[in-house]
Amino acid sequence: METVTQTIQGVPLNHYIILSAVIFSIGVMGVLIRRNAIVIFMSVELMLNAVNLLLTAFSAYRGDPAGQVFVFFIMALAAAEVAVGLAIIVMIYRNTNSTDINVLNRLKW
Amino acid sequence: MNLFYLIAFLSVFFSLLVIFSKNPVYSVLYLIITFFTFTIHYVLLNAQFLAIVNFIVYMGAIMVLFLFVLMLLNLNKDSEPLKSNIVKIAGVVAGMCLLVTLAGSVKALNVSDPLVLKNPDIGLVQNLGKVLFKDFLLPFEVSSILLLAAMVGAVLLAKKDPKKV
Amino acid sequence: MSAINLVWLVPLFPLIGFLINGFGRNVLPKSIVGLVGCLSVLLSFGLSTAIFFELEKSGATAYYVPLFNWIQTGSLSIPFSFQVDHLSSLMLLIVTGIGFLIHVYSIGYMHHDKGYAKFFSYLNLFVFFMLLLVLGSNYVVLFIGWEGVGLCSYLLIGFWYKNSSYASAAKKAFVMNRIGDLGFLIAIFVIFRIFGSIEFGEVFTKAAEMKVGSPVMVLITMLLFVGATGKSAQIPLFTWLPDAMAGPTPVSALIHAATMVTAGIYMIARSNVLFMLAPLTMNVIAIVGLATAILAATIAITQTDIKKVLAYSTVSQLGYMFLGLGVGAYTGAFFHVITHAFFKALLFLGAGSVIHAMSNEQDMRLMGGLRKKLPVTFITMLAGTIAISGIPPFSGFFSKDEILANAYEHNKIFWVIGVIGAVFTAFYMFRMMFLTFYGKFRGTHEQEHHVHESPATMTIPLIVLAVLSIFGGFIGVPEVLGGKHWLSHYLAPVFTNKAAGHEVHHLDHNTEYMLMTISVLGAVIAAIVAYVRYTKKHHVPVPDHASRGFLGNLSYHKYYIDEVYDVLITRPLNALSGLFYKIIDKAIIDGIVNGLGKATGLAGKGLRLVQTGNIGFYIFMMVAGVIALLFYSFYKI
């Protein structure tokens, strides 16, 4: 374990931020270009994880455990969100026989 | 140190595969690999508790749920009608713009100190547990209510409409 | 426990009666309703009598009975308190005494009416407010009573509210009273501004230091007088009183003849200290009173409705009282209030008895020859008529004579016009008597068959009032006729120094004899003329549409004053309201409000097109927004 922790030493914080930004942006792109509701949902998970990683990095950087606790809470939240979100998708599929979000355009006017 | 950049490259690579593979089942599998790279990141940061939780909750529970739903709805075929190219290009451009803006922001903030684990023990289960059950006891308990509500909501939403049967 | 300390019970009894009858009006049987109504006023009357005697025995000028501190804010302090002095104790006797008689009368008169309990509850409420008005020790309590009697007047005029003309008469009375009330209210504000208090005692003490004829006193007294013209039906606000005859006859007797309409005179008499400081206002009061007296008398001559005759007679008599106030004869004016309360209540109740007998017929052209069938009513009404005509030794003679003598001393022209009015009074009153009770019956057969004397509950009050009308004048027999004028001595503490100085004594006895002889002779001649015209020649007033000649028409149509008001005030006001309604309200205010609503609607109609329902588009816009925000915050474009 000692060696593992040694490995990380010297990586600038900036690189963590940029990594998270890249993955977050990939998540956003996924949301924008896909039409399958489940894939969009996965892209959202990707974004959430990018944030998690960043929070953990900050936590380690500042030596403050609160950041990691937040990550823990975000995970609990994500679990709840996925359960409800997938339930909604299942119901939508049952009603429209599709998970294409372009079909779901009744939410207007 | 080089390990971090390798893992980071894998993370980006697999997350790109997630959004660009046409079959949703492949997407899920790539996503699992992406999450696994995240677990390694956590281990590197010595956040052992989070690494375990991420492994169990994300890769275990959530991903299984995704796969389960995909199989249930029989969406494993490559049936998704693709968006027009213009929309795709617009989406990619927007994502890139966001990336550039974020990167620019980081530059503007000018924080480039190397990461030093001042207190490598904070991520251990023992220490995190103390913080969680002392300072964050109430939010922790409240989150249980959230999970309960989500459970009830999921059951209610997903069950078959009795009238339609 | 002396009776004076219990004075708060006097208004309380009628209030309790009102509450019992008001809440139990659908439950209580008629006998109990009548009993409660009469008993509550009788108890007040008994207590008032005790207070009256105790006050006279004690020799004190006034008692101040505080009840509770009502409004206390800053320098403004308004206690809810009563003042018992000679003026208010006399008014107490009149209000409760005549009120009781009229309550008893109403038992018989209203017996067939569906709103029996409602009527009694309103009547009790009226007595309560009237007692509050009389007893209040400051202008605000007086004003509460003042408004309260106005309210009861409105309720009782519109008692048969299903008839729309009655309801509009009630509204007319209310609105015209409001005009006067506004003046009174402003007067109270000014009084508080000038004197820093609205308690009678303090105000009068401070006012005594003011200069005679100072503008502010003229302002206050003129505003008070405006209030009095509204309540006491003087020019220009008198037209509501004749219309107020739409109410049941006991109401006309109690409210619109004996008590409420004299509230204005009471208020001015109460504030005599202020009025003595404003000679200009006094002159205005005298002239307005005289003009009202003569105008109403000339209208009464041609009226055919028995109650309208009495109503104009009331307006005319009130004019005499104001003439008395205006020339400084407060005692005389108040004396006339008392005697007028007796004989006018009597006349109204008699008229009510006639109407009752005639199955609600009020037109004198359809009456006649009722003398034999209604003997009690006839005799009592005759007593009232002689009293109002001013023929000695009936009560009206003494009071009217005192006013006229004071007027003569003040200005001889006032006296001449006053006597002419008195002659008119005698003429139209005897005309009414002869048309109603002499000659042949002119109504339908059914009515003739139905005619009967009223029950004892109605005749007994008539007899009591007739006795009072005959002998009531003896409380104020002037010295010239060998009397002591008990009333002027009794009221002397209230009408202080300057006012008391204006006694009849200044005239020498020969002049007084002459004045009396002239007015009595005039009245007798007028009575004889009426007898000849309406009994010997069997003259009956022509139907509504027939021509009467110019003067006759003018009088019959009340000088077209209602029509003139309609053209001069009502129509311009309506036109102005219409203008405000159409242009300012409809076009401008509604335009702005509706325009805002429409603009919002249109904007929504345009903007909703942005909501395509395409989630991808939403997310795209969201990302664009995030980029824009970040760009803005980090690069500060």
From TrEMBL, chain A:
One of its GO terms (molecular function) is quinone binding. GO terms for biological process: ATP synthesis coupled electron transport. It holds the Pfam family Oxidored_q2. The chain crosses the membrane at residues 13-33, 40-61, 67-93. It comes from the Bacteria. Gene3D superfamilies: 1.10.287.3510. One of its GO terms (cellular component) is plasma membrane. It is a multi-pass membrane protein. Its EC number is 7.1.1.-. It catalyses: a quinone + NADH + 5 H(+)(in) = a quinol + NAD(+) + 4 H(+)(out). InterPro entries: NADH_UbQ_OxRdtase_chain4L/K, NUOK/Mnh_C1-like. It is found in: Cell membrane; Membrane. Keywords: Cell membrane, Membrane, NAD, Quinone, Translocase, Transmembrane, Transmembrane helix, Transport. It is an enzyme of class 7 (translocase). PANTHER family: NADH DEHYDROGENASE SUBUNIT 4L-RELATED (PTHR11434:SF21), NADH-UBIQUINONE OXIDOREDUCTASE SUBUNIT ND4L (PTHR11434). NDH-1 shuttles electrons from NADH, via FMN and iron-sulfur (Fe-S) centers, to quinones in the respiratory chain. The immediate electron acceptor for the enzyme in this species is believed to be a menaquinone. Couples the redox reaction to proton translocation (for every two electrons transferred, four hydrogen ions are translocated across the cytoplasmic membrane), and thus conserves the redox energy in a proton gradient. NDH-1 shuttles electrons from NADH, via FMN and iron-sulfur (Fe-S) centers, to quinones in the respiratory chain. The immediate electron acceptor for the enzyme in this species is believed to be ubiquinone. Couples the redox reaction to proton translocation (for every two electrons transferred, four hydrogen ions are translocated across the cytoplasmic membrane), and thus conserves the redox energy in a proton gradient. NDH-1 is composed of 14 different subunits. Subunits NuoA, H, J, K, L, M, N constitute the membrane sector of the complex. Belongs to the complex I subunit 4L family. This is NADH-quinone oxidoreductase subunit K. It comes from Pararcticibacter amylolyticus.
From TrEMBL, chain B:
Keywords: Cell membrane, Membrane, NAD, Quinone, Transmembrane, Transmembrane helix. NDH-1 shuttles electrons from NADH, via FMN and iron-sulfur (Fe-S) centers, to quinones in the respiratory chain. Couples the redox reaction to proton translocation (for every two electrons transferred, four hydrogen ions are translocated across the cytoplasmic membrane), and thus conserves the redox energy in a proton gradient. GO terms for cellular component: plasma membrane. GO terms for molecular function: NADH dehydrogenase (ubiquinone) activity; quinone binding. It comes from Pararcticibacter amylolyticus. It catalyses: a quinone + NADH + 5 H(+)(in) = a quinol + NAD(+) + 4 H(+)(out). It is an enzyme of class 7 (translocase). Its main location: membrane. Belongs to the complex I subunit 6 family. Gene3D superfamilies: NADH-ubiquinone/plastoquinone oxidoreductase chain 6, subunit NuoJ (1.20.120.1200). It is found in: Cell membrane. The chain crosses the membrane at residues 6-21, 28-45, 51-73, 85-106, 136-158. This is NADH-quinone oxidoreductase subunit J. Its EC number is 7.1.1.-. It holds the Pfam family Oxidored_q3. InterPro entries: NADH_UbQ/plastoQ_OxRdtase_su6, Nuo/plastoQ_OxRdtase_6_NuoJ. It is a multi-pass membrane protein. The keyword Membrane applies.
TrEMBL record, chain C:
GO terms for biological process: ATP synthesis coupled electron transport; electron transport coupled proton transport. This is NADH-quinone oxidoreductase subunit L. One of its GO terms (cellular component) is membrane. Keywords: Membrane, Transmembrane, Transmembrane helix. It is a multi-pass membrane protein. One of its GO terms (molecular function) is NADH dehydrogenase (ubiquinone) activity. The chain crosses the membrane at residues 6-24, 31-53, 87-107, 119-137, 143-161, 182-200, 212-230, 251-269, 275-297, 309-327, 333-355, 376-394, 414-438, 459-477, 513-532, 615-635. It is found in: Endomembrane system; Membrane. Residues 70-120 form the NADH-Ubiquinone oxidoreductase (complex I) chain 5 N-terminal domain. NCBIfam families: NDH_I_L, PRK06590.1. Residues 138-425 form the NADH:quinone oxidoreductase/Mrp antiporter transmembrane domain. Its main location: membrane. The keyword Membrane applies. It holds the Pfam family Proton_antipo_N. PANTHER family: NADH-UBIQUINONE OXIDOREDUCTASE CHAIN 5 (PTHR42829).
